[in-house]
Amino acid sequence: MSWDRVTLFVLASFGCVTLLLTQISEVLSKVPPIIRAWRRVRDELRPGGRDCPAADRPTQEEAVEAGEEESEAVEQRAEG
Which of 36, 41, 59, 63 is deepest in the core (most CB within 10 A)? Predict the structure, then answer.
């Protein structure tokens, strides 16, 4: 193996590592906006989403009661 081949191998290796790190950086930089977008979608799909007038939104107590009622209904279906 000559020094020319060793040099080319080292250069190619560093090029591949640089490319890999750049691609990983690009993917990781896009993760937070994707998470924010997903949360926005979830909020919009929920009853009483962000754009609902405040009068139409359930209060905290109403939301808790609705969740408890739904849990009880699920438990009853599971038992019977």
Answer: 63
How many Å apart are CA 80 and CA 76, to the nearest integer?
6
Alpha carbon distances (Å) from 47 to 1, 10, 14, 23: 69, 58, 52, 39
Residue whose structure tokens are 């929920």:
46
d(CA 70, CA 56): 20
Q: Comparing C-alpha atoms, which of 69, 48, 47, 46 is closest to residue 57?
A: 48
Asked if 6 contacts 14 with a C-beta cutoff of 8 angstroms, the reply is: no
Give the type of residue at 18.
T
- Residue 29 has what pLDDT? 95
Summarised one tens digit per residue, pLDDT across range 25-56 is: 999 999 999 999 999 988 888 876 666 565 56
